[in-house]
Each structure stands twice: as C-alpha cells, then as structure tokens.
Amino acid sequence: EQLRRIVVGYPLVLKMKEANLMSAVEFFANALWYDVDGGDDVDCSHTSISYDLQEDYKKRLAAFLCESPQLLEYNVEKRLKPRLERLRIAKEKEAKEVGSAAAEAEGVDEEMLRSIATLTESRFETWLLQIINGTPKSDGDNNEAATQLVPPQPQRQPNNNPSAYVILSNLQSGGNIGNIVRSASIFECEECIVVGQKRYRMTGDHGSRLDLPQRHMWSHADVREYLDEKRVRIYGIEIMENASPIMQYDRETGVVKFPFEAECEGGWSGSAFIFGNEGQGLSTKQREICDEFLFIPQNRGGSGGSEDNFAGRDKVGSASMNVACAAAVVLQAYSMWAGYSEARFEGEKFLS
C-alpha cells in the first residue's frame, strides 16, 4: 500500500535511476533520524538503538515519503545536502544566540525537509534569514518560536478578488501539462483540477506542482458540480463561432475590455479555464460543462484556413496557438482583470 501511494503520487519514480532513488531515500532517512536522535548522524540500524525507537522512525519515514513522494526527484548532492547543511548552521547559530543547548541539538522535521527541497532559491534565502535573525523567546513563547521555522506559505488571492482555477483533462504532452501548471502557479490560481486518470506525465513545471494545490476528480460532471457550489464560472478556450475574444482594445478610447463582466452581474465568485486537446481541441464532454467560450485572436493563421488563401502552397504558418502558451495568455489576462497584485522582482526574477 505504501509503494502504491508513492507511485500514484509520483509516477515518474518508476523511471528514476536506482542510484538516484536510493540516494534521495537515504538523504531523507538520515535527515529524519538526526531529528529522532537529536544529535550527530548515526546508523539507524545500530543494535544499541531501542527497537521501539527504530520502529517509530521507520513509520515516520514511510509516512513522509507516502505524503510527499515528489520530493524524491530533487538532486541530493547539488540541492538537498547543501541546503540541509546551511539550515543546520543557521539553527546552531540561533541556538547560541538564544543560549539553549536543547535548541542546538534539535534536528529537522518533515516541514523543514519539504522547504529545503521545494522552495525557490529566493524563498529559501528568506526562510533561512528568518531562522538566523530569529529573536530570543521566553519559555512561554515556545509555540511562537516553532512557528518561525515554518516556511512562508504561498499567498492566494484575497477574498475580495475573483478566484481562478485551471482544469486539466484530455491533454497528451507532459510538457504542456507542466507548463500550464507553472502558469497557473505564477498567475495565482486557487487550484488545479485534474480530471480522469490520476497518473499523468508532467515536465517543465519547475516545482510549481508543489506550490499549486491540486484536486482530482473522475468526471467532468463532478467538476461542474464542485465549481457550481463555489459559484465559479467555467470558460472553454477554443476557436469557435460563439467564442468571445480574451480581450479587446479600443485605440480611440484607450480602453481594454475583458469578457468576464458576467461574473460581477451574476454573483459568480471566480472563473475556471479548461483547455482542449493538442490535436482535437475541446471534446464534447469538456464543452458540456462550459458556461462560455473564449479565444485568443491571432494576427496570422495557418494552412487550416480557406483553401483559396493557400492555393499551390505547402502548409505554412500555424492555425492555432500551443495549448500551454494559450493558457499563459488567458491566465495573465484574467489576473489583470481580477486585480491580483503584482509580485515584486529583483534582478531578472520575480520573488515570492
């Protein structure tokens, strides 16, 4: 059952090289054992360790890997070990400033390991600084001191802003899926709803899968019911006659118009966006759950248009945009209309 949960939670574990997989498991095992032992790294199979302690440790490690199997993908030597070492140095420094031997012996817990693995470099630096610059606490403030070591959580939209969701179904490319999830995280979507099979290939998300909450549902009808309860309007992204453009700009007035005003008029609390298959577009079942359809206007098309336009010519141009690119355009337009705050940036990167 534990192996099943790990494989279902992270199918790519089946393609990992054995050496890399065992290295990752060993890293998390040693890190958690340090927390159990409260001191130097030791061999957790040593006979001098009590049987009960070993069993509790094994259960804890198994529960951690079952809950967060995606962490196995991170590089041990280049990412995990250096970050863990920096965290231990920071905790030792904090302990010396506080003057607590107990704090110095304290190890790392599961939440800290998730932060070590998943936080972007800028978020990790911020989190580490919180530990290094932590102020001494009195005995009565132990809970508050512990809270300082919890990494900052992803900030979602305020309640007074419309929420956004993406619905993933009937897509073939793991690269497209990964990049849609990446855009959904960047443009502050509330959830990514996956329809149908739980196991799917994902590449190119750059850790966004661990930042964006995901929800699985077996059918499109279930998605429709779930979003209806939340008063969320579903938009299908497709090139079709009755679809509205994602945005319109009036050059004379300088006004940009978006097609989301129905949310304000109908008491809707947000929008969900569903994207068609790379080759066939939106399926019948996908279209059936949509309240409205949107498209992204193009300035040039491809050979899928009128035959007269391409007489005597081979296939040229592109009749439609890549689905992951389309998702980025749609989500950016919606975040602009919804009034989400812009992330601050430093150098050439946006920060959390």
Keywords:
single chain; globular; seven-stranded parallel beta sheet; alpha/beta; 12% strand; 43% helix; two-stranded antiparallel sheet; 11 strands; 13 helices; 352 residues
Structure description:
This protein has 352 residues and is α/β, with parallel strands linked by helices. 43% of the residues lie in helices and 12% in strands. The chain has 13 helices and eleven strands. The protein has helices at residues 2-9, 18-37, 51-67, 76-98, 101-105, 110-118, 121-132, 142-147, 174-186, 220-229, 261-266, 284-288, 323-338; strands spanning 163-168, 191-195, 214-217, 232-237, 244-245, 248-250, 255-257, 270-275, 292-295, 345-346, 349-350. The chain has a seven-stranded parallel beta sheet, sandwiched between helices. Helix 9 (174-186) links the parallel strand 1 and strand 2 (191-195). The relative contact order is 0.10. Mean pLDDT is 76; it is low at 36-49, 101-105 and 135-159.
The oligomerization state is single chain
Portion in beta strands? 5-15%
Instruction: Calculate Rg over CA atoms.
Output: 25 Å
Taking all residues together, what is the mean pLDDT?
76
Number of beta-strand segments: 11
| Biggest β-sheet description | 7 strands, parallel
State the helical fraction.
40-55%
Question: Which class do the helix and strand fractions yield?
Answer: alpha/beta
- How are helices and strands ordered from N to C? HHHHHHHHEHEEHEEEEHEHEHEE
Shape: globular
User: First CA to last CA: what distance?
Assistant: 36 Å
Count of helical stretches = 13
Widest beta sheet: strand line-up: 3-2-1-8-4-9-5
Q: Catalogue the unreliable spans.
A: 36-49, 101-105, 135-159
